[in-house]
Design goal:
The structure is a homodimer. By secondary structure, chain A is mainly α. The first copy, chain A, has helices at residues 5-23, 30-37, 41-47, 51-66, 75-91, 98-105, 110-133, 142-160, 169-181. Chain A folds into 2 domains: 3-52, Homeodomain-like (Arc Repressor Mutant, subunit A, Orthogonal Bundle); 68-181, Tetracycline Repressor, domain 2 (Orthogonal Bundle), CATH 1.10.357. Chain B binds a DNA duplex through α3.
DNA sequence: TCAAAAAGCGACATCAGTGTCTTTTTATTA
DNA sequence: TAATAAAAAGACACTGATGTCGCTTTTTGA
């Protein structure tokens, strides 16, 4: 499967992703993407009819990957694995799409993101409730704690694009959440 | 003081602020602002030479107001007052400039925002350390806790622009922080 | 009350990005 | 290797935003 064109589309998405991470959504033009990929305008338009289309495909890839995890381990193991993933994501701010995502969302794609957010919250709540049931986690309000985890993370990724990054910031995130959930 | 032009400039900033809150920074054009204010292009340019200039003046006003608080009360009182302010800010998402700010920052104005962020963190750390010294707050890592408070808030304001707002979200924020700092 | 200054208007040239269309190049395979 | 299809190029007309400039209206204060 995947005709000849697949390679080129992949290359386009890959370069476009870098641009979106650098500049946000609105600041990226089709011509920018041409430049990065080495394609001409005509060539590029053969594959994608606009930055919105490219971006939405990138997001689908992105979130497909994010939903793949989950195994049948203890709540504690899942938590630690999850936090480690987030920690590394926080570290390479060059790859963060957060600004682009918020721009794109507030340009009329709110519902899509509402779903993503609701899904993420639900997954966290499940994990927390499960961990509390097995006694691995301290008792907390699952809804409240999920929001803390999610919003704290969002804020972190957002600002880390922009401000000089303090070394412990990512560690703080992880250890805060562990402190709130696990006995020392 | 404040010549005749002052009124008009105020009106411009006021309307522009609404637009920035609605659409973010890049999506707002000088023509948009003309429309809202009822001025013509020529008229508007007499006062401001571009959206960047307007936005930066708005920010100065904004942060001047934010730094004005602080009194000589107990740490607990200051905390509660601060949190109440944040809570109400979270509630009226229409007025949130967060998206615009991040766009503007990542368009080459990083250092300005690095300062704002550093200032906010320093103020929180002072408060926390003071509260711990007087025994009003539980012992916490002041740096870690300040980052939690700030990033959580940022994430919250950001997303609340975009997703259906759950009623308790603002309360969660306040109560999480109180739980972490005050004895029940 | 009337002249000068301030405020406001809108046409203009310009620019950067868009999306389309025709032509050229490159691959494919009969 | 010639015929055909797919991919890529780049010229074109168009759009929407910019910033400027000369003109008109309003305000003001001598």
């Amino acid at each position: 499967m995947g005709g000849k064109g697949t390679k080129t589309k992949e290359k386009i998405r890959q370069q476009a992703r870098r641009l979106f991470a650098e500049k946000g959504f609105q600041a990226v033009t089709m011509s920018d993407i041409c430049e990065r990929t080495g394609l001409s305008r005509g060539g590029l338009y053969r594959y994608y009819s606009g930055t919105g289309q490219i971006f939405s495909e990138i997001l689908v890839e992105e979130y497909a990957a994010a939903n793949k995890m989950e195994g049948e381990s203890s709540a504690r193991t899942v938590l630690e694995h999850l936090l480690e993933t987030l920690r590394t994501e926080i570290m390479d701010k060059e790859r963060s799409l957060s600004l682009a995502i918020y721009e794109y969302a507030s340009l009329g794609n709110e519902t899509f993101f509402a779903e993503i957010h609701a899904g993420a919250k639900k997954r966290w709540m499940h994990l927390l409730e499960y961990g509390m049931k097995t006694g691995e986690f301290k008792p907390v309000d699952a809804g409240q704690m999920s929001e803390l985890i999610l919003y704290y993370y969002q804020g972190l990724r957002m600002w880390s694009r922009v401000i000089p990054f303090e070394k412990q910031t990512a560690e703080y995130y992880v250890s805060t959440i562990k402190q709130m959930l696990l006995e020392e």
